[in-house]
């Protein structure tokens, strides 16, 4: 059995194996399954499954070109003891708010859920296509994705990974996490610029033909781990199923009863995965899209106009500081009735003018979504309130989601069980969380605050950052932003 993956912009279709290797379609569009697969097992059947079994089932529906044995190896390799909780994704509840804790992986944020399995998909896909080249993953990071990708690709056969980060643009903990990275195939390089410079350097490397052919001649193929790869999206569908089953197991819902979902949103990948779960037949009613002060999506859901012409604000929930939500293109494809000409037109308008407007009939299909946003002061206040009332500690991103949930409840009165995607550990954004809880943060390093936060809340410091300041620094490479290509060649021993 096969399933076609089409480009949102109408270009040639491929199977899932090629879609995973290519990452992005040649016409610049994103790959989407020609049909979103439907559930063909009962909820009571799925209820008996643990995380890994559910992952094999759900991913198998999207990637039928992988054999059950291949898929099983990917899932077992990805979701193992590198997650600190045996259940992989624990669910914690405060009344009808149910926190789907996606942050117990090696880097303490939800990107681990997808980036721990993507490398297995890529190396399996390479084998299936009888690739003899080594795949080099190039990534620019503003902090989170780089570390998650490094952990995921570490020591995966047939791959190397090079991460560029802005030397003065990431937090102390984030930098230390990256430069202490183990693995024989990992490279970490600080550059003398900001995140945009790092990203532009990576894009330039991808688009430079002579550079790519020099690499090719030495047996290297470039690939990317960024969030538009369908191999990152599909594993995210799994945890919405798992969350629902947890509510079913806890007796909080009966079989078939609808729930709502709230997702703190940046690039629109995580919430799109919830939409896919709903489209497959999981009983989800509303999808609450929570933004921070960069509220392009809130305006979009209000007016049907997407307009990125505004100043990017740097907030305390930095992983959501985004003006172009790339994965929204996949939703536009679905709600426009799979009209790739229409999608291309809107994307062209976005490139040229920074905005596009939905036709009325397309706009009416947005009713599954509810947009909301939360400012900085409210975010901090929410962390404080929830801790004082319930003893539950949230990071800044999860707090944006919780605040959206409260607004949704108040405005609509819809009090179905709510699944809240909890995307980062409070220890990952320690300074803001510690401050919100009333700790004195001035003149203290992030490392010190980790201990203080643990002391105050009784939460155990996650193993992956415990005493990280004492670990050996393994990566000291630096380079100028204009010399990234030369640096890559040097690291890979590629001559002129
Ligand atoms: C990436 C990220 C988000 C945003 O997720 P998208 O899929 O880009 O919408 C939210 N919270 C955290 C902690 C993240 O790292």
TrEMBL record:
User: Which species does this protein come from?
Assistant: Andreesenia angusta
Recorded hits in Pfam families, A to Z, give:
PALP, Thr_synth_N
Q: Which SUPFAM superfamilies match?
A: Tryptophan synthase beta subunit-like PLP-dependent enzymes (SSF53686)
GO CC, sorted alphabetically, is: cytoplasm
Membrane-spanning parts: none
Cofactor requirement? pyridoxal 5'-phosphate
Q: Where is the Tryptophan synthase beta chain-like PALP domain?
A: 103-420
Q: What is its EC number?
A: 4.2.3.1
GO molecular function list: threonine synthase activity
| Stated name of the protein | Threonine synthase
Question: What CDD domains would the database entry show?
Answer: Thr-synth_2
Indicate the family of this protein.
Answer: Belongs to the threonine synthase family.
Q: Which GO terms describe its biological process?
A: threonine biosynthetic process
Q: Which UniProt keywords apply?
A: Lyase, Pyridoxal phosphate
In the record, N6-(pyridoxal phosphate)lysine modifications are located at 111
Instruction: Name the encoding gene, please.
Output: thrC
Gene3D superfamilies registered for this protein in UniProt: 3.40.50.1100, Threonine synthase, N-terminal domain (3.90.1380.10)
Question: Which segments constitute the Threonine synthase N-terminal domain?
Answer: 4-79
């Amino acid at each position: 059995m096969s399933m076609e993956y089409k480009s949102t912009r109408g270009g040639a279709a491929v199977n899932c194996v090629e879609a995973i290797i290519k990452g992005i379609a040649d016409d610049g569009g994103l790959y989407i399954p020609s049909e979103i697969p439907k559930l063909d097992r009962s909820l009571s059947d799925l209820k008996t499954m643990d995380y890994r079994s559910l992952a094999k089932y759900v991913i198998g529906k999207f990637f039928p070109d992988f054999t059950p044995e291949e898929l099983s190896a990917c899932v077992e390799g990805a979701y193992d003891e590198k997650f600190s909780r045996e259940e992989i994704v624990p669910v914690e509840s405060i009344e009808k708010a149910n926190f789907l804790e996606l942050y117990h992986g090696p880097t303490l944020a939800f990107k681990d859920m997808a980036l721990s399995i993507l490398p297995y998909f890529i190396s399996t896909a390479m084998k299936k296509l009888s690739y003899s080249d080594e795949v080099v993953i190039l990534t620019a990071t503003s902090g989170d994705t780089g570390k998650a990708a490094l952990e995921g690709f570490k020591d995966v056969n047939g791959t190397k990974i090079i991460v560029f980060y802005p030397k003065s643009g990431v937090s102390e903990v984030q930098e230390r996490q990256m430069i202490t990275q183990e693995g024989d195939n990992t490279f970490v390089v600080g550059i003398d610029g900001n995140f945009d410079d790092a990203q532009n350097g990576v894009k330039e490397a991808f688009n430079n033909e002579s550079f790519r052919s020099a690499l090719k001649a030495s047996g290297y193929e470039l690939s990317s781990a960024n969030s538009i790869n369908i191999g990152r999206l599909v594993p995210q569908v799994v945890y919405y199923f798992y969350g629902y089953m947890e509510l079913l197991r806890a007796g909080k819902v009966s079989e078939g009863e609808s729930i709502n979902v709230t997702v703190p949103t940046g690039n629109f990948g995580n919430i799109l995965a919830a939409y896919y779960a709903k489209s497959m037949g999981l009983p989800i009613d509303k999808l609450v899209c929570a933004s921070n002060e960069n509220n392009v999506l809130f305006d979009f859901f209000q007016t049907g106009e997407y307009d990125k012409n505004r100043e990017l604000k740097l907030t305390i929930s930095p992983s959501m500081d985004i003006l172009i939500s790339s994965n929204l293109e996949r939703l536009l494809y679905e709600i426009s009735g799979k009209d790739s000409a229409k999608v291309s037109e809107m994307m062209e308008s976005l490139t040229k003018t920074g905005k596009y407007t939905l036709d009325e009939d397309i706009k009416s299909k947005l009713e599954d979504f509810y947009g909301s946003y939360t400012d900085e002061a409210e975010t901090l206040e929410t962390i404080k309130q929830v801790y004082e009332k319930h003893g539950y500690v949230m990071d800044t991103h999860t707090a944006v989601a919780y605040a959206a949930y409260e607004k949704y409840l108040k405005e609509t009165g819809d009090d179905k069980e709510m699944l809240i995607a909890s995307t980062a550990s409070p220890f990952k954004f320690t300074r803001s969380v510690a401050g919100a809880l009333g700790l004195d943060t001035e003149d203290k390093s992030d490392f010190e605050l980790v201990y203080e936060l643990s002391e105050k809340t009784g939460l155990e410091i996650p193993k992956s950052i415990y005493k990280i300041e004492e670990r050996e620094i393994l990566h000291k490479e630096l380079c100028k932003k204009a010399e990234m290509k030369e640096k890559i060649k040097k690291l890979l021993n590629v001559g002129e």
